[in-house]
């Protein structure tokens, strides 16, 4: 079973992806079918035992169990066929994927095209394409940060009737912090490929410069941010200092 969220390959009967926790509809359907069949068997057995002589009940139960078993097996067969067809489609998409084409998009820094290519060929996060997946994730994190920062900058450029939200500032600070600490300590998001580490180092400098420039932060404040817990009082205090220093009106969200 290929997880549609992270691309991890795992047994189809699992209820969710062991890697990212994404729910597996096929696994849940199998589980529900098993539970339903078991429940129907118990209910039917109880009704039969209370309404028939024992020797008749045994014969009827044998027939009922046979029918239920056959129906359950048929259901599993249909599900297996559907899953098998999906697997064939995914395998076909994998076979059509080309590392060379992905490398060309990677070299051209066409990360939107690279993301679409990995997803359309079902190779996002798969062996042979992990370098490209890693770069796309970096790109997504960076541009999500820039998008949120740009929204604040728009308010600064067009101040009439608009007010900056403390929560928006806090969100940008935290997005920047997550990027800056990717390669620190025991972060589970550490990078594997040298090309991506070089890209990340440039990106990290840009993120730090954006935080320092937009919010007038000092290097010391940036260092303090790296040690803060999310939604802590220290973060709130930092946001209030930024508003006071920049002359922005502070109102609790």
3D structure, described in words:
With 253 residues, this protein is mainly α. The protein folds into 2 domains: 1-96; 130-246. Helices cover 70% and strands 0% of the residues. It is built from 9 helices and no strands. The chain has helices spanning 25-51, 54-96, 99-107, 111-120, 130-157, 166-180, 194-215, 219-226, 233-246. The longest helix has 43 residues, at 54-96. The protein is elongated and about 85 Å long. The protein starts with 24 loop residues before the first helix and ends in a 7-residue tail after the last helix. The relative contact order is 0.07.
Short description:
The protein is mostly helical and 253 residues long. It folds into two domains: 1-96; 130-246.
Q: Supply the number of helical segments.
A: 9
Which class best fits the helix and strand makeup?
mainly alpha
Outline the low-pLDDT stretches: none
| Rg, alpha carbons | 28 Å
Q: How many strand units?
A: 0
Q: Which word captures the global form?
A: elongated
Amount of beta strand: under 5%
Helix/strand order = HHHHHHHHH
The pLDDT mean sits at: 80
Number of domains: 2
Largest sheet: none
The separation of the N and C termini measures 43 Å
Name the helicity range.
55-70%
């Amino acid at each position: 079973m290929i997880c549609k969220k992270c691309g991890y390959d795992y047994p189809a009967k699992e209820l969710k992806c062991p890697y990212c926790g994404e729910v597996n509809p096929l696994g849940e359907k199998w589980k529900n079918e098993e539970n339903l069949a078991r429940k129907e068997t118990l209910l039917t057995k109880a009704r039969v035992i209370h309404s028939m002589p024992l020797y008749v009940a045994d014969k009827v139960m044998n027939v009922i169990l046979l029918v239920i078993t056959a129906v359950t097996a048929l259901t599993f067969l249909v599900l297996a066929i559907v899953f098998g067809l999906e697997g064939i489609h995914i395998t076909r998409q994998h076979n059509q994927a080309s590392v060379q084409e992905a490398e060309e998009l990677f070299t051209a820094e066409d990360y939107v095209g690279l993301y679409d290519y990995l997803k359309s060929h079902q190779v996002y996060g798969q062996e042979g394409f992990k370098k490209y997946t890693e770069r796309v994730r970096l790109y997504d994190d960076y541009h999500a940060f820039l998008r949120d920062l740009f929204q604040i900058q728009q308010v600064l450029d067009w101040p009439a009737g608009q007010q900056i939200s403390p929560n928006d500032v806090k969100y940008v600070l935290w997005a920047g912090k997550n990027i800056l600490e990717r390669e620190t300590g025991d972060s589970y998001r550490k990078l594997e490929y040298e090309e991506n580490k070089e890209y990340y180092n440039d990106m990290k400098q840009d993120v730090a410069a954006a935080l320092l420039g937009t919010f007038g932060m000092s290097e010391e404040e940036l260092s303090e941010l790296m040690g803060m817990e999310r939604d802590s009082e220290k973060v709130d205090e930092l946001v209030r200092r930024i508003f006071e220093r920049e002359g922005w009106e502070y109102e609790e969200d």
